[in-house]
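Researcher: We plan to redesign the surface later, but first we want a full-length starting point. Tokens attached.
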């Protein structure tokens, strides 16, 4: 099902996929909690991929589609694939603040106010590790799922840039982590090009 023509369908698609594929204890409570956050309306980033209303849920569904189309086989665990792809960026719920910034119009030379997003992190616990923490308030993750979500940023993760070797062990021991990272890259850099409604000057 293509959702490109109607971004508002991403919330419905997210809930449908999650409800059909995830039956783990606490999953219904997790969905209820999402309704109390801005997860379904938040952007996926401040200025780049999915920097628009509902960009976060769009990105989550795109990662699911990329992961399933590239790596899923009947031997794989569909529930695990669904959890890691749809929830890997749960850390971004209640994370961004909408506002405006001044940008000079290249044509007129005039300064204009344009919509923008900024980070307002009330719980600065990291990225992947924060998603794991939030998920496990409701459902128990398998080790491979927790590792995949923790390291889905790959080399973009602050801990890796700081010199951590844990990611090498994670990718070596847990192929699911590699698969999620690649699906995240595909969604971010290939599927979501041009999805920002925020001026990138």
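Model: Full-length starting sequence:
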């Amino acid at each position: 099902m293509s959702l490109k023509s109607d971004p508002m369908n991403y919330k419905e698609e997210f809930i449908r996929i999650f409800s059909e594929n995830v039956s783990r204890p606490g999953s219904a409570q997790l969905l209820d909690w999402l309704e109390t956050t801005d997860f379904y309306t938040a952007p996926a980033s401040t200025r780049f991929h999915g920097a628009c209303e509902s960009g976060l849920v769009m990105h989550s569904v795109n990662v699911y589609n990329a992961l399933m189309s590239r790596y899923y086989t009947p031997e794989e665990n569909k529930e695990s694939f669904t959890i890691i792809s749809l929830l890997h960026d749960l850390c971004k719920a209640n994370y961004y603040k909408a506002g405006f910034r001044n940008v000079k119009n290249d044509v007129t030379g005039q300064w204009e106010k344009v919509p923008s997003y900024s980070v307002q992190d009330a719980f600065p616990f990291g990225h992947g590790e924060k998603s794991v923490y939030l998920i496990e308030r409701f459902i128990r993750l398998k080790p491979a799922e927790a590792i995949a979500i923790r390291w889905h940023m790959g080399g973009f993760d602050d801990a890796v840039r700081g010199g951590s070797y844990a990611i090498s062990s994670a990718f070596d021991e847990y192929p699911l982590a590699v698969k999620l990272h690649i699906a995240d890259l595909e969604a971010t850099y290939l599927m979501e090009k041009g999805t920002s409604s925020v001026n990138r000057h």
